[in-house]
Amino acid sequence: MVARFPLSDADLDRLFRALADGTRRDIVARVLGGEQASVSVLAARYDMSFAAVQKHVAVLEEAGLVTKHPQGRERMVRGNPAQLARARELLLHLEGLWKSRFSQLDAVLAEPRLPQDD
Amino acid sequence: MVARFPLSDADLDRLFRALADGTRRDIVARVLGGEQASVSVLAARYDMSFAAVQKHVAVLEEAGLVTKHPQGRERMVRGNPAQLARARELLLHLEGLWKSRFSQLDAVLAEPRLPQDD
DNA sequence: ATAACGTACAACCATATGGTTGCACGTTTC
DNA sequence: GAAACGTGCAACCATATGGTTGTACGTTAT
Fold first, then answer.
1. Taking CB atoms and an 8 Å limit, are A22 and B33 in contact across chains?
2. Which of B33, B43, B109, B111 is most buried, by the most CB atoms less than 10 A from its CB?
C-alpha cells in the first residue's frame, strides 16, 4: 500500500484554507455534483466580479480540489474527490488518536504492571 | 435523529480555518491523544511566544475543536472529537455529491425513456 | 505579605486574504 | 480582419491573520 498522506504540512494548510470559505465550498459542491462549469459560468452564479471567482477557482486548484481543462476558449472546472478524501483521512486520523487514548487506557487497566517510564 | 449539520456557514469557515495551520493541527492531535495539557505546557512545546500559542488555542476554542477547563490557575485544554466529526461529515457530503452523480447517470442509462425536463 | 506562576488581553507590525478595476491575449463569431 | 467572449494577471485597497512585547490580574508558594 502506498502512503495515504502524501500531503505536506503546507499542502494541508492550503487544503483546509481552501475549504474555509463558503463560496469555495459551494463551487466544490457544484462541480462535484456534475455541473458542467466553465469559470465564467460559475462566476455568473455569485454576486461578485468574475476576477474574484476566478481567484477562488485558482485557490481551489492550488489546493488540488479542482482541475481545469481547456476546451476552446473556456476552462472547464472539474472537482477532485480524491483530495477531499485526503482531508477526510486526516480528520479520521485525529479522531483515531482520541479513540486510541481509551484503548491504551483499557490496556493499562488490563495489564496490572505499573509503567516505570515517565 | 437530530440534524447532523447544526453548523452555520460562518461556523464552517471557523472550523476549516482553524484546521488550516500546522501548529493548531498539532495542538489538536496532542490534546486528543490524551496529553494532559495546560496552555503553558502546550506553549513550551512550540518555538513561539506563550501569547502566540494562547491565541492558537483561542482560535481552536472558537472553532469548537477544544474546550478549556479551569483548574486552579491553569486552563486545561481538552479536544472535542465531535467537532472534527462534523467537519468530516461535510467532506463526506461533498464526496457523496460526486458519487450520486454517477448513480444518476446509471439511472438514466437503466431507464431508456428520455427525460423531458431540463 | 510578597514573589512567582498561569492566563488574558491590548497594542503593534508584517504579511496574507478577499474583494475591486483595468488590461493583455488567445479563441470564436461575424 | 474586426468585434466579442473567456481567461489570466497586475495593481490597488480594506481587513484578517500570525507573530511580537508589555501589562494586568487571579492563583499558588514561600
1. no
2. B43
| pLDDT per position as a tens digit, A9-59 | 999 999 999 999 999 999 999 999 988 899 999 999 999 999 999 999 999
Domains along the sequence of chain A with CATH:
9-80 (1.10.10.10)
A94 touching chain B per CB within 8 A: yes
Q: With an 8 Å Cβ cutoff, is B76 touching chain A?
A: no
> Straight-line distance from CA B82 to C1' D29, in Å?
39
Helical H segments across chain B, by residue range = 9-19, 22-32, 39-44, 50-62, 81-110
The number of C-beta contacts closer than 8 angstroms across A and B is 93
Q: Answer whether A13 touches B (CB < 8 Å).
A: yes
| A53's grid cell | 471567482
Rounded CA separation A97/B5 (Å): 23
